[in-house]
Design a protein that fits this description.
The chain is about 65% helix and about 5% strand. By secondary structure, it is mainly α. Strands 1-2 form a two-stranded antiparallel sheet. Strand 1 and strand 2 form a beta hairpin. Helix 7 packs antiparallel against helix 8 and helix 8 packs across helix 9. The chain is elongated, with a radius of gyration of 20 Å.
């Protein structure tokens, strides 16, 4: 089946975030104007505006009336937004400052969440939590020639999802974990360093 026009449409937000993460646009820089993007990619203004709104919602850029869109410092980014997390995982080079912020957040929040969830867990839930933890532990200390890195992400997600039994809570814990962005950018090294300190 031939791809639709929507499938062929350039993803302006991803192109821009890739350039931002690559350092082509620094905090305080202005990205191309809406009209320039419309002309460059032959898209309507509404389409470009919707694409830019994704970056605004992620805290990555801010719209300044009469001037355009300016890149914000990474400290302003909504790194728990699943879309932003996915962009960081796919496009970002290792950034030690971002990784430390994520780890500090996880260390601050997760112990309380885990304790509360474990207190409410059934026997079946506790077995699942233990199995997920053992898999995560084995992978963390595995040799470099062991399972692929993505397996660590899978075990990390499984461990945090297993902590909660109610569907309304699962998305929250998975967002807290930020495993994809944390691990893909080299977070296990920092996590190991904190674990030994």
């Amino acid at each position: 089946m031939a791809p639709s026009s929507v499938d062929r449409m350039p993803h302006i937000a991803e192109m821009l975030i890739r350039d931002i993460l690559a350092g082509h646009y620094q905090p305080g820089d202005f990205i191309p104007r809406e009209l320039d993007l419309c002309q460059q990619f032959d898209l309507s203004r509404n389409v470009v505006r919707r694409q830019l709104s994704m970056l605004v919602d992620g805290g990555i850029i801010e719209r300044i009336s009469g001037h355009g869109s300016r890149v914000l410092p990474w400290q302003s980014w909504n790194i728990l937004d699943p879309v932003v997390t996915d962009w960081i995982a796919r496009f970002a080079a290792p950034n030690q400052e971002i990784l430390k912020e994520i780890l500090v957040f996880r260390l601050s929040v997760e112990p309380f969440v885990a304790m509360t969830a474990a207190q409410q867990a059934t026997a079946h839930d506790l077995v699942a939590i233990e199995e997920a933890w053992n898999a995560l532990y084995r992978d963390f200390y595995a040799s470099p020639d062991g399972p692929p890195r993505h397996m660590h992400n899978d075990h990390d997600v499984a461990f945090h999802v297993r902590h909660l039994s109610r569907d309304t809570q699962r998305g929250m814990v998975t967002s807290f974990a930020c495993p994809a962005s944390f691990d893909s950018a080299g977070g296990r090294g920092i996590q190991h360093q904190y674990a030994q300190s």
